[in-house]
Amino acid sequence: KYQKKVFRIFYRIRRSGKTIRGSGLGLFIVRNVIRLHGGKVWIESLKNDQGTTFHLMIPLIAEKT
Known about the structure:
The chain is an alpha+beta fold. Helices cover 17% and strands 18% of the residues. It is built from 1 helix and 2 strands, in the order H-E-E. A two-stranded antiparallel sheet has the order 1-2. The longest helix has 11 residues, at 26-36.
């Protein structure tokens, strides 16, 4: 549900009854730094809010363009 939105600047997930701190910049910055290095970042979530895994892939050697 939130997998693409969480990488937007200033995006924060709001859940009823929970206070979530932060500026909404962290994952936006991570995604942009990873992309600058030619990598990818993505997330996989388990069903029923049982957890989320964040994947980061950065190439060892940059591709020549």
